[in-house]
Amino acid sequence: PTQQNSKHFLDFRFSIEQLNTNPSLLANLTLGYHIYDSCGDPRKAVRSVLQILSGTREPVPNYSCVGKRNIAGFIGDLTSETTVPIAQILSIYGYSQISYGATDPSLSDRTTFPYFFRTVQGDSGQYYALSKLLRHFSWTWIGIIRSDDDSGEKEVELLRRFLHGESICIEFTVKIGSNIGDDPQWLWGQNIIQKSSSRVIVLCGTVSLTLVGKLAKFARWIREKTFVLPSKWGANDQILSYAQHIFTGSLVLTQIYPYKLDTAEMRDFLNSLTPSNYPDDKLIEDIWTIHLLCLSNNPNKNSLYEHIYLRTLHNCTGQERITDLGNFNDHGNSGRVHLAVNMMSLALHDMNVSLGDQSPESSKVAVKYQHQIPRAQCSDNCLPGFRKAQRVQTQLCCYDCVRCSEGEISNTTDSANCARCPDLQWPNENKTQCITSTETFLSYTSDGISVVFFSISLLFFLKTVLIFGVFIIYRETPIVRANNRSLSFLLLVSIKLSFLSVFLFLGRPVDITCMLRIITFGITFSIAVSSLLAKTIMVCVAFKATKPGSSWRKWLGVKLSNSVVLFCSSIQIIICTTWLAISPPFQELDIHTSPGTIIIQCNEGSAIGFYSVIGYMGLLAAVSFVLAFLARSLPDSFNEAKYITFSMLLFCSVWITMIPAYLSTKGKNTVCVEIFAILTSSAGLLACIFLPKCYIILLIPENNTKSNLLGGKC
């Protein structure tokens, strides 16, 4: 807390002690108080209010968990950002609230905030006076610097309206963000201010040391300009003292209170506030530790404060006084806290006197029936989670209570209708509130099948790398060279990529992974099948070329195989590119298949594009299967066609059975079907094409000779 915040607390405490010692006010009553620090955070402010109303550490809305307690009202808060949500809650429960710093104009709406009061002028009154002040000095050409938040935007719009009424023009409006660094917007604003001709600048928005710090770095460009500050800026002593060199000569709107607190009683009170006089008061101890840098009796607290405030604490002599600090001697703004407490106490006093003036008879009747309110209802109240259903041919006050339908809630008693939850939420078990629906997808952490797929894919990838290494080492042997080793290498690379494409199907789907899933596998596997097709064609051509005088000899060589692979793969790439350009896959949230669950899945975008990719792979596989089947009886030196036949038969079987399974499943089960098809078909290619060769290379190397291959003994 700053010195000024601590001073507000001491002003509040002094006012309470004065009231409790005044016999003419609140006779036989003693005011107590709870103090909560909002830390400038609206969420913490709301939580603090609910804690006070509930009487417990954990807030319980709409319940008071403490027996006998009387909450008279609330004093605070300092800023509009925290005061508005507090006022919204207290207006519901009918508690009075008096703020000593909130200036938001919306708080003046007596319909919305009937129990809210404040001891400071609202923004409307301030900017009205400010516009009159500018007009009085004939300052009709001004600039505005505001905080980059909602408060700054609202205040600038309010100021514009009053300036327009006074025929005052605005040269520029510059926003300063709350981040510590120099953001591009502020750098642009510096350039605007340098080039501006206006000599007067009005500050608006949230009071912030960060904003003033940025102005201080820009001091040489604004030292010649005059600042005009609203009262909430002028009331912050810390801000003005932090940057005196830029605010010297500025005009500040201040609010004058009818009395001062610079009295002997106040000075005695402040001088008496020492840890030795109040050994059990932790707040006094904290004030001395933070502002006077005195060591406390708690070593842990000392270490914490030295770490937070980067200051060294020391043993105090006991002669130090809070009044030694500058802000505690400045009583110019003390009146607003003191006035808030006095307003509340006077209202309580008047109410107490009014209740005391009631006749004994009327009071006696009130007590007699206080706990004997008769019940006069046709039907019991419908609890939250139920709605009223009118009985047939009965009066309106007679009804039955019906449970809310699926997907609907009611959170009030005797609700006439149930409200449907938003799309991404679902009722809790009692149907009294909407809670976030459970998200489901093929997760690495919560689904064991994901770990299984991950492990299998990684295992087959490593096996493929191992086989690739074997083929590299034995690349000059006859069995590797017999069937176009370049195609074998390309086939191994494409199979490796097919196994790696499985990782795109695991985890939470996003747009980019949805687009890459099928397309990555489709292209890599099309290259693999194209390589097999090229191998099969080369087998047929090579057999034809063995005949004397055959014209097929000119087709022998790598040009034919490379052309087949390039042509067949290019068609798949064109299909995938067209699919992405027209209607690409995207992330989809399915909230209808399983009520209460959000299935995060990929929508294929265009069914035609999806089935075109799958269908083209099937076409390539079918052509390869037919050619390989026809070439299966060729001489043994070209017997790879047999293995291609089996691999393509396996591929076609897997993907034909995959289609109905794909269409009949939803969510992560659909992804499991796709992954299973990819792993099975890729593993089938690896096993059928390369394992027989590895068996010969590694286990029976004596068969890995040219004579054995030509002799049909391999």
Structure description:
The protein is an alpha/beta fold. It has four domains: 3-120 and 259-274 and 321-338, Rossmann fold (3-Layer(aba) Sandwich), CATH 3.40.50; 123-252, Rossmann fold (3-Layer(aba) Sandwich); 386-432, no CATH class; 448-710, Rhodopsin 7-helix transmembrane proteins (Rhopdopsin 7-helix transmembrane proteins, Up-down Bundle), CATH 1.20.1070.10. It contains 25 helices and 17 strands. The strands form six sheets. The protein has a five-stranded parallel β-sheet with strand order 5-4-6-7-8. Strands 1-2-3 form a three-stranded parallel β-sheet, sandwiched between helices. The chain has a three-stranded mixed β-sheet with strand order 15-17-16. A hairpin with a 6-residue loop joins strand 16 and strand 17 (597-603). The chain is elongated. Mean pLDDT is 80; it is low at 359-376.
Q: Categorize the overall geometry.
A: elongated
Spatial sequence of strands, sheet with the most strands? 5-4-6-7-8
Total number of domains: 4
End-to-end Cα distance:
87 Å
CATH class identity of the largest domain: Mainly Alpha
CA-based gyration radius: 41 Å
Brief rundown of the structure:
By secondary structure, this protein is α/β, with parallel strands linked by helices.
Question: How would the blueprint of this fold be written?
Answer:
Layout: H1 3-20, H2 42-54, E1 74-75, H3 80-93, E2 97-99, E3 116-118, H4 123-136, E4 141-147, H5 150-165, E5 169-176, H6 184-195, E6 200-204, H7 209-217, H8 219-222, E7 226-229, H9 231-234, H10 237-242, H11 244-247, E8 251-252, H12 264-272, H13 282-291, H14 299-309, H15 334-356, H16 360-368, E9 386-390, E10 399-403, E11 408-409, E12 419-420, E13 425-427, E14 434-436, E15 438-440, H17 448-473, H18 478-481, H19 485-500, H20 511-545, H21 558-582, E16 586-590, E17 597-603, H22 607-630, H23 640-664, H24 668-699, H25 706-710
Helix pairs in contact: 1-15, 2-3, 4-5, 17-19, 17-24, 19-20, 19-24, 20-21, 20-22, 20-23, 21-22, 22-23, 23-24
